[in-house]
């Protein structure tokens, strides 16, 4: 977090918890070109209010045996730079 962004609001910083919004957007992709689409859902990790996005939580789903299954969970900063990723 950039503390400069919170000048004059420092007292609100202690209220930041683990607030993750519901899915805000999604994309449908075919990263390996096999004509099997994957879905990436995007949720915003929120700071002191909804407009204060701290990070993006992304879940990638792949079609397996006729159902979409979560295969990766990733965390990116608010500029979409990957911070961490786990295979599920």
Description:
It is a single chain. The protein is mainly β. Helix content is 0%, strand content 56%. It contains no helices and five strands. It has strands at 19-29, 38-46, 53-64, 67-77, 82-87. The protein has a five-stranded antiparallel sheet with strand order 1-2-3-4-5, with no helix packed on it. The chain is elongated, with a radius of gyration of 16 Å. The mean pLDDT is 90.
Keywords:
single chain, 88 residues, mainly beta, five-stranded antiparallel sheet, 0% helix
Please write out the topology.
Elements lengths: L18 E11 L8 E9 L6 E12 L2 E11 L4 E6 L1
Antiparallel strand pairs: 1-2, 2-3, 3-4, 4-5
Distance from first to last alpha carbon: 28 Å
Query: Number of helix segments?
Result: 0
User: What share of residues is helical?
Assistant: under 10%
Structural class: mainly beta
What is this structure, in a nutshell?
0% of the residues lie in helices and 56% in strands. By secondary structure, the chain is mainly beta.
